[in-house]
Amino acid sequence: MSEPLGTVARPVRVAIIGAGPAGFYAAEALLKQKDVAVRIDIFNRLPTPHGLVREGVAPDHQSIKAVTRVYDKLAASEGVRYFGNVTFGKDLLHEDLKRHYDQIVYAVGAQSDRKMGIPGEELQGSVPATIFVGWYNGHPDYRDMQFDLSHERVLVVGNGNVAMDVTRILVTDPEELAKTDIADHALEALRASKVREVVMLGRRGPAQAAFTTPELKEFGELAGVDVVVDPADLQLDPQSEAGLRDDKTAARNLELLRAYAARPLSGAPRRIVMRFLVSPVEILGEGGAVKAVRVERNELQMGPDGSLRARGTGVFETIECGLILRSVGYRGVPLPGVPFNNAGGTIPNVAGRVTEHGSGENVPGEYVVGWAKRGPSGVIGTNKPDAAATVAAMIEDVKNGVLTPAPGDGAIEALLHERGVDYVSYADWRTLDSYEAEQGAAQGRPRVKVTRVPEMMEIIRRGRSA
User: Which end of the chain, N or C, is more open, meaning fewer C-beta atoms within 10 Å of its C-beta?
Assistant: First the structure.
């Protein structure tokens, strides 16, 4: 007679797809519960773990990256294994996971961006901010991208924290960035940059801006940078004014913006111009590349749901620029064999349990966490309670006996070897991590990132044979 699922003799075998914060917090929540024995395998497409902590957090925000120490401890836990350099849908198929694992957790984030849907968006020099972020953070997919920084003005569309990050990186003194773990190729390009002004465009007013106060405060602390805000943009309509009473972040932001608006310009060599109530309506080109952006002035109007929405007023202006970075939202991409809600860009679910798109029926043994579950919202820490909620559903399903134990033996290493996949263990990653840190120490930096997968694998293989 087979052992009951979730006992020490037959632990629940869990596969987590994605090694970013959401994936690690799911592992943490599984390990913290005491009632069900589990064994966890974490799979990641790149050799390097930590997801957006490595590839998304701005290089001048090193303190945020300290969270990886928690992930390191989780990865060292008994019953947890890491498989990097394994692509879901290619090296490892959905049916493989169903055969070898009792539960599957998708922690794949939101890898694509939303488009503005305006003419000229496909011109050279019109780029998602996510790609620019990946480029300066050394993401292998984007490290060979080229950005034209020979023009004096860049436009950034959006006013969330990603928009704030790319704006700040564009105007920060490269010698300050040289003390961080910014990718070497990006540092070289930024040293040669001619950009002197970054204009941020927000379609709604300052009270609706999505950035956080610490990010806004950083703008005023940048050496050699003026922050320009038109006081007229800070005049609020009655609904926005009333909303400040219940939104302390918006109230603090407005106070800081008013301080910037009142601050005399210093004649600094670089500047950030923050605009509100404007939307790009067309990107204008010359020779196939971005030349300028036509924008429309907006006003706020109450929507049927009570929210304030931007509506064009028919007043236009044209702003010359050589590069436009859009940061207007993110969305997931479909995974082979996994339900997907194309409208929302998420994996359909109820309380973290994956459901069939359309019928809404549960897909037994499949779960989702993070941005793939709830959409692109929150900060790194938001993933912790989100993952805990999904894990509670997972444990409930084990206890209620609704799972069919996987027929396979869980020997996924043999399957990967058979397919010629050179997967990366966490010990392998620590070899690469140590290499990067040593290179960084020689330059007084946190690390010097290796940005090409073949080079990563070469360093790892040398470490294995040492």
Answer: N
